[in-house]
Amino acid sequence: MSQKHLKLVILIITSALSLIWLTAHLWEIFPLSGQFTQRDPDAVLFARLLEQSILKGQLIETDSYGCYPYEISVRFPPFYLWFLYRTTLAYFVLFPSSQVDPMVVAGFLPIVVTWVCGIVILLGIYRISRSNVLFLLCCFFMLPGSAVAMASGFFKFDYDFLNAFCIWLWIISYLMFYKQSSNTWALVGALAVALFLGTWTGTPLFFFFATLYGATIWICRSDDAEKVLNYLGSTMLTGSMVNLLTMVPSDLNGEFLSLSKYSYFQPGCVLAGGLGCLFLRGLHVRKISRGVGIAVTFLLLLMLGYMFSDQLLESTGIILRRDPIHKTISELRSSISFSGIIKNNVKLQAVIDAFGWSIILFPFFSLMPWRWCEISQARFLRFWLCLMIILSCYQIRYLRWIVMGCGLYYGITFYLLWNMLKSQFDSSRKGVAFLVIALLPFMVMQSTHNYYWIKSFSTLKDYHVELFSWIRNNTPETSGYSDDNRPEYGILANWDEGNYIGFYARRPSIANNAMWGFKTMADIFSAKTENDAAQLCSKYGVRYVVIPTFKEASGDSYSFWPMFRTMPEKPEYTLLSGEIIHDQDYKNFFYFWLMENLALTQRASFNAGSYFRLVYVSKSPAHILAPYLVFEKVAGAKVVLKGDASTTCQISLELMIGANNYLYKKSVQTDSNGFVDIIVPYSTSHKGGRIETQPFYKISFYQDGKFTKAKLHVAENDIIAGLDVSTKLEVVNDDGNDEQSTEPQDQ
Question: Is the pLDDT of residue 323 over 80?
Answer without folding.
Answer: no
